[in-house]
Amino acid sequence: MSTTNVKILLRRGLRKDISHDTLVPGEMGFTVDTNQLYIGIENAIDEVQFDPFANAQATIQSWLNSVDNPEPGLIVDEDLIIRDVQDIDKLLSKMHYFEQVIVFDSVETFTAGETLYQYVIEDETETFTSIADQTDFTINKDLTPKTLWSVSTVKVDGTVIPQQETDAQGITTDNYTVTGQVVKFSNDGSVALTGGETVDINLIKHSIYTQGEILLSYTDPVAGTTTTTVKVSEPSLDPYSNPYMNGFYKETVANEDDYYFSTQSTGTVEPTKATTISVASEFLGGLYGRSRKNTEVVTENSFNNMFADQHLVSQTAASGLRSSLFKKELKQRIHGPDKLEFGLEYKILDVGTNTDAQENWNTVAGTTRSPDKLEPGIEYTIFDVGTNTDAQANWNTVAGTTGVTYSVGDTFTTPTSNFTSVTEETGHGSAGVTYTVGDTFTSAGQVAMETGQGSALTIQGTFMSWDKNICTSFFIDYSLVQTKNTSKFVRVGSIKVINGVPQGINDIKLTDDNTEIWQDLNSDNIADVDEFSNIEFTAKIEGNNIKFMYEQEVDWETEISYTIKRWTM
User: Fold this and answer.
1) Are residues 466 and 411 in the same domain?
2) Is 80 a residue whose pLDDT tops 50?
3) Of 567, 488, 569, 503, nearest to 535 (Cα)?
4) Which of 159, 359, 393, 419 is the least buried, fewest Cβ under 10 Å from its Cβ?
C-alpha cells in the first residue's frame, strides 16, 4: 500500500500585514520576516489592540484626545488596548483616514464616492532632428488621461508653431495634430520640414500629489464657490502604503499655476483653484491598530524573546516590526488652562490677554477666595464685587484702605501686618491671587478654552496608569537617556511598586534601584548633584487608578525603554 504525503502550508505574509488582514477563527498565519505564528480568534466586540511601537501609548492617547476621534473619552491602557469601543469599524476607519474640507473658487460638480485628485504640474521637453519629408514624431510618453501627459507647445528651430492657423478668408488649417503619442505635421500647414530642423516638443505632466474619496460636495451659486469634504488616507512611512497620502495642498499666489484638480469621471485635469483647505492630521499609530482578531503562538523565535536569550529592541513605526520592549518620551509639557492635568505643579509662562485670564488661573489653581478667606501679604484681583450692603466696606477692610470704591478687575495687596479679616456673608463676592509669569501652582481643575488664555509649563507627568483594584505587584526594568541641549545622562534601573488596594490597604509604595555613569563635568573628582540624571519616579492613588509619576528639571527630556511584569496576590 503506497503512502501519500500531503504538504500543508500556512498563510504567509509580512508582520505588518497582521495589523490589516484578518485571520478567520482557527486559521493560522506565519510572518516570513519575523518568524512569528498567529491563530485567528473570534472578533473582540468592543476592543482595539495595538502592536508596540516607539512612544505608542502617548501617541495613541494624543490621537484619542483629538477631534479626529469619533468617540471622545476613550483611553488606551498600558497594554495598548482601547476598551469599551462602541463602533470598532468606525474608530479604525478614522485612524486610517482623516477628512479635509476644500473650498474651490468656482462652481464645480463633484460626485460623492468619486476619487478627487490633486496634480502638480511638471514640464519636460523631447527634442528631435528631422529628416527630409518627415511628418511624424513619436513621443516617448503615453499621452492618455491616465498618465496625464499632454503637448504644450511645438517649436521648429526655436520658433513656436501654432497648432492651427486661420488665413484672411477665415479658413483654418492644422499645422500639426496630436494622436496618441504621435505629433503629425500636416501637408496643408505653413510648416514644411526639409530635413535637419530641430523639433522641440514641450510636454506637461500632471503628477498625482494627493488623492482622496469625495464624501460630500455642495455649491454656493451666489458666492461662486464649491465646498467639498474629502477622506484621505493617513500619512505613512510604510514603503508599501499608498504614496499619495500627503493631504491636499493649498496653492499660494506664487505657485497657483502648478496645482490642479480632477475626478476619475472626467479623466482630464481641470484648472480649478482651491482657496481654502483645512489642515491635514497625522497619525501613524493607525498602522498598528486592529480589532482583537488573532493571538500569537509561542514559537522558538518568540520563546527566546520571552525567556532565555533576551535581546530586546524597540522598533520604529515605519519598520512594521513588533517591538520587544516599550518606549516612551517623558517631556516637560506646555498647556493652556483648559488642558491642565489634575494634581501636577505648573509654572506660568504666559498669563494671557483675555479679560478672564486671572480668574481662569485662579480657577485651575483652586485659589479663588471670598473676602473672609484672604491671607495677609498677597496681591489679589477682584472677580466679583459682591451684592450685599457691606461689600465695599469688606474690600476696604481686607485691603487696609478706606473709602475706595472697588470694581471687578481691581487689584490690591493685603497688609502683611495689622491684617484685618472679615466675617463670612452671603453675596460678599470673590477675589483671586494676581498671577504673573513664573508663578507656580498645583492644578486643581480645568476651564473652557478661550482665545488669549495664556499657558503654563509642567515638569511632572504620568509615566503609567493602572486600575487600582487589579494588580498588587509591579516590576519595571528600564534604561533611559536624559538630554538637555548637548548634555546627556544614561541610566538603568528597576522600579518596584506594591499596591495595597486589592488587599484592602489604601496605600502604595514605589522604589527605584538604579545605576548610571557618572560624568565629572567640572573635572574636580567630586560627584556633584548636577552630574547625574535628575528624573525621579513616584506613585500615587488617584480616583480609581494608581499612577506612576515622573518629575525632572526644566528643559530636560527623557526617553525611557522598559519591560514590565505585574501580578495580583
Assistant:
1) no
2) yes
3) 488
4) 159
For residues 123 and 247, membership in a common domain is answered with yes
SS3 category, 360:
helix
What average pLDDT score do residues 172-180 get?
A: 80
Across the strands, what pairs with 89?
Answer: none
Burial 71-109 (b: 16+ CB within 10 A, else e): eeebebeeebebeebeebeebbebbbbbbbebbbeeeee
In this structure, the answer to whether residues 178 and 297 fall within a common structural domain is: no
Q: Which are the contacts of 324, defined by CB distance < 8 A and separation ≥ 6?
A: 305, 310, 311, 312, 313, 314
pTM of the model: 0.51
Q: Tell me whether residue 499 is exposed, middle or buried, using C-beta atoms within 10 angstroms of its C-beta: 0 to 12, 13 to 18, 19 or more.
A: buried
257: which DSSP letter?
G
Cell triple for residue 478? 528600564
CA atoms within 13 A on the CB side of 500: 8
Question: For residues 295 and 51, what is the distance between their CA atoms, to the nearest angstrom?
Answer: 12
330 assigned to some structural domain: no
150, 143 in Cβ contact below 8 A?
yes
Decide if 157 is inside a domain.
Answer: yes
Q: Measured between alpha carbons, how far is 229 from 99 in angstroms, rounded to an integer? A: 7
Task: Report strand pairing: 28-31 vs 11-13.
Answer: parallel
357-382 residue pLDDT tens: 999 999 999 999 999 999 999 999 99
Give the rounded distance of the alpha carbon of 437 from its chain centre: 29
| Residue span of the structural domain in which 19 resides | 11-97+287-311
Confirm if 250 and 277 have CB atoms less than 8 A apart.
yes
pLDDT confidence of residue 103: 83
- CA angle, 319 then 324 then 328, to 5°: 80
Residue 519 cell numbers, joined = 560624568
Whether residues 141 and 220 share a domain: the answer is: yes
Do residue 557 and residue 450 come from a single domain? no
Specify if 148 maps to a domain: yes
Task: With beta carbons less than 8 A apart as the criterion, state whether 346 and 340 touch.
Answer: yes
Residue 340 gets which letter from DSSP? Answer: P
Strand order in the sheet with 48-50: 81-82, 48-50, 289-291
CATH code at 497? 2.60.40.1680
- Polymer length of the chain: 569
120 and 243 fall within a common domain: yes
The 3-state secondary structure of 286-337, one letter per residue:
HHCEEECCEEEECCHHHHHHHCCCCCCCCCCHHHCCCCCCEEEEECCEEECC
Average pLDDT of the residues of the chain: 81
Residue 149, all three cell numbers: 501627459
Burial of 525 (0-12, 13-18, 19+ CB in 10 A): exposed
Element (H, E) at 285: none
- State whether 155 and 270 are in the same domain: yes
If asked whether residues 235 and 274 sit together in one domain, one would say: yes
Residue 430 located in a structural domain: yes
Give Dmax over CA atoms of the chain in angstroms: 117
Query: Which of the 8 DSSP states describes residue 59?
Result: H
Confidence class for position 235, pLDDT limits 50, 70, 90 = low
Overall domain count for the chain: 4
Coil, strand or helix: which one is 75? Answer: coil
pLDDT digits (tens, 9 = 90+) for 134-162: 888 887 776 554 456 677 788 888 888 88
